[in-house]
Description:
CATH class of the largest domain: Mainly Beta
Radius of gyration: 16 Å
Amino acid sequence: MERMISKFYKSVAEGKIYGVQCKKCKHFIFPPKAGCEKCGAHSMEWKEISGEGTLHFFSSGNLPPKKFAEYHPYAYGVIELKEGPIFFTQIEGLDVSNVKAIEEQNAKMPMKVKAKVKEMAGMKIVIFEVAK
């Protein structure tokens, strides 16, 4: 598992975002895991993601993790990748200045988003931004 995590973050540092696809059932997983969530197989193949996704809803919190406190406030939400996986991550391009703004934008969901690699807190991470 350590090797998989290492490979994932090395590719992110190079500006590439990968998931894995099960060789047995073709289920796509992001972030990468050593085994298939669908069939349990452990034969996975690395695949670069398209970066295209759909934001289903988002919010903003008052207590960000200490490492990311200087970036507060920021949006985080539920993304469904074009390839299928659903996960929770940071989103750029949304107004999180007040509850009314968040409610109004959530009423317009779903919204198209695009993945990007961003340096935050001394590390490169995968975030999404609202597609223009």
